[in-house]
Amino acid sequence: MVKFLHPCITLLLLMLWQSTWHASWADTSIPPSYHWGRGISWPDADFNLGGYVNVSYQHPEKTANELKLDELSLFLTWSPHHRIRFFSEIEVDDWLSTRQSESFSHVLKAERLYVDLLASETTTVRLGKFLTPIGRWNIIHAAPLIWTTTRPLVTDETLFSPHLNGIMLTQRFQLNEHNLDVSIYSDHSARLDIFDSSTTGFGSAFGGRVNFELSETSQIGLSYIDFNTELSPNADRNDLVGVDFLWKKDGYEVSAEAIYRHAGDSQGQEQGFYLQGIAPLAGHVFAIGRYEYLNGTHHFITTDTHVGVAGLAWRPFVPLVFKAEYRFGAQNGAVAPSGFFTSISMFF
Asked: What secondary structure letter does DSSP report for 64?
């Protein structure tokens, strides 16, 4: 796939050069510009370059502490036509650490790399590598947009791969002036995965997601996926069902996700959920509380785990967030050890 990708990248760069060359000869009224948090924008070429960085400090109990560069991501968006939009997120993941640093070539990967074909104002076809649409946490994805350094167990990549490689069709409907988004997708990561040396991906998968806007402040989602894994392609296929909810108003937020996964062999089954609340305090500081529960066979580990997270997030500016939290629980040492976690995330 990498050999195939090189000429594709060359073709995209040539197309980008051609469109920007024509733009340079046009009577441009808006020159390229940089805005903190939004990157470099060139409106006449429909081009944007940005990204984010995330640095964390982790001090779990009974384990050595660690300071690391979690993520350094580069976003590239380009629309050569009003019905075509390219997007890529090239990421360096867990590169530098006080425990162990990896080689640059090993940690460099394509987190997302796709093209959206806008068949109409309400119909989109997506081709390439994109985030698995299960729940909300995995879709939001970027560290500056999520509230905590740690992520809930029911969104963990040992439960399902965070990425798909294939095709997705999304259709938007209007029900009583409320949006209803329906997506269906097919994945074949075993053959199509791009620039990713990890082995936590799907072998193949198919599924869908429905998201409905209940009101201006609340949404509910339903997800389903049938999959096998790259590590165990001959094992029984898994079925996973999820439901999620979001309510936001005046800086307050309540979100929840629940999942149930089942396979007929030693992969077993598991179920769990999280419930998270956000409340604004003074000076762009927010209080965060989360409860999690996980029961069953989680990556071949038997669990009956309760987890609590209490923390603060300070957003002095829109692109920048400081996070600090303490995680605790019962029977959680194997999958989510108690301890102190903090991070700094910023869009650039």
From this structure: -
- Its pTM surpasses 0.85: yes
Could you give the CA distance from residue 127 to residue 129 in angstroms, rounded to a whole number?
7
Positive or negative torsion for Cα 275, 280, 281, 283: positive
Question: Cα separation of 306 and 144, whole Å?
Answer: 26
For residue 154, give the nearest of 303, 323, 327, 312 by alpha carbon. 303
Instruction: Centre a 10 Å sphere on the Cβ of residue 325 and count the other Cβ atoms it contains.
Output: 21
C-alpha 187/C-alpha 166 separation (Å) is 5
Report CA-CA distances (Å) from 71 to 93, 130, 131, 142, 204. 5, 17, 16, 9, 26
**pLDDT one-digit tens code per residue, 14-69:** 554 554 445 444 455 788 999 999 999 999 889 999 999 999 999 999 889 999 99
Residues ≥6 apart with Cβ < 8 Å to 4 = none
Instruction: From residue 142, give the alpha-carbon distance in Å to each of 45, 89, 195.
Output: 25, 11, 19
Query: CA-CA distance, 186 to 196, in Å (whole number)?
Result: 19
| HSE-up (13 A, CA, CB side) for residue 308 | 5
- What is the average pLDDT score of the chain? 90
Minimal CA–CA distance to 56: which of 67, 72, 65?
67
Report which DSSP code applies to 63. Answer: S
| Cα–Cα nearest to 299, from 163, 193, 156, 197 | 156
Phi, psi of 60 (to 5 degrees): -75, 150
Q: Which residues contact 239 (CB under 8 A, 6 or more apart)?
A: 224, 225, 226, 261, 262, 263
Answer yes or no: are the C-beta atoms of 196 and 182 closer than 8 Å. Answer: no
